[in-house]
Design goal:
40% of the residues lie in helices and 25% in strands.
């Protein structure tokens, strides 16, 4: 891990950009005492998403945690993935034509992304936990929800996850969800124009966790109410301390 820049924000949060091999990322911390870490997932395009990610991170740090994120494969400044671009174009055409998005399109778009992104997240976690300001349990917050599901299955250091149901989910991932046992807080926008609501509900039903909460709000993809963050904060307070 190589830090490439740092900026002290006006609320005392230190924002540091880093690279891990070819993977860009950002770490937000406050102070030198070891803090539990929350990994922040997003749909890709780190620079484009930065204002929203930074706002989430600053709220997270204010609650006593460190926060970190990385760029997804094929997004932002990372090399494009031709197969994913084609699957994304096929999905867009189906949606614009009012057609059902086929399982084949969803599989081609999401499964290779999960297969590559999850090991990258785990390698990032390895590097972050070497830092003196990171210590204690780890949480995951955000999307792509299929990445969060796989991480919850294979990464024992993640003890709780707040997942954003805002993307298409392969049937294979729904089957994997039955192996998830950590506490979950799932956020669903009921009228999300880019999300298959029934698919999100099927995924929530499949989770094997004894503690799982579905927080559903009216509105579209970007209409998440500000108070939804309060419920997520209380969730992480219970499980990360």
């Amino acid at each position: 891990m190589h830090f490439t820049s740092e900026q002290l924000l006006d609320d005392g949060v230190l924002e540091r950009r880093f690279t891990l091999g070819e993977i860009p990322g950002v770490l937000w911390t406050s102070g030198s005492a070891p803090a539990p870490l929350i990994l922040m997932g997003h749909p890709g395009g780190l620079d484009r998403m930065h204002p929203r990610l930074a706002a989430r991170a600053r709220q997270t740090v204010a609650e006593g945690y460190a926060a970190a994120t990385i760029e997804l494969p094929g997004a932002g400044v990372r090399p494009r993935v031709a197969a994913a671009d084609q699957a994304r174009a096929d999905l867009r055409r189906a949606v614009e034509a009012g057609e059902r998005v086929s399982d084949d399109i969803v599989d081609r778009l999401v499964l290779p992304l999960v297969d590559q992104a999850v090991p990258e997240w785990r390698a990032t976690l390895d590097a972050l936990q070497e830092l003196p300001e990171i210590g204690g349990p780890v949480g995951f917050s955000g999307g792509v929800i299929s990445i969060g599901v796989r991480l919850a299955v294979v990464e024992p250091r993640i003890v709780a996850a707040a997942l954003f149901a805002g993307s298409y989910v392969p049937r294979a991932i729904i089957e994997e969800a039955r192996q998830v046992t950590i506490p979950l807080h799932v956020l669903l926008q009921w009228d999300d124009e880019g999300n298959d609501r029934q698919m999100a509900l099927d995924l929530f039903d499949a989770f094997g966790s004894k503690e799982k909460t579905l927080n559903a709000n009216m509105g579209g993809h970007t209409g998440v109410p500000a108070y939804a963050g309060d419920a997520a904060n209380r969730f992480f307070a219970r499980h990360l301390g």
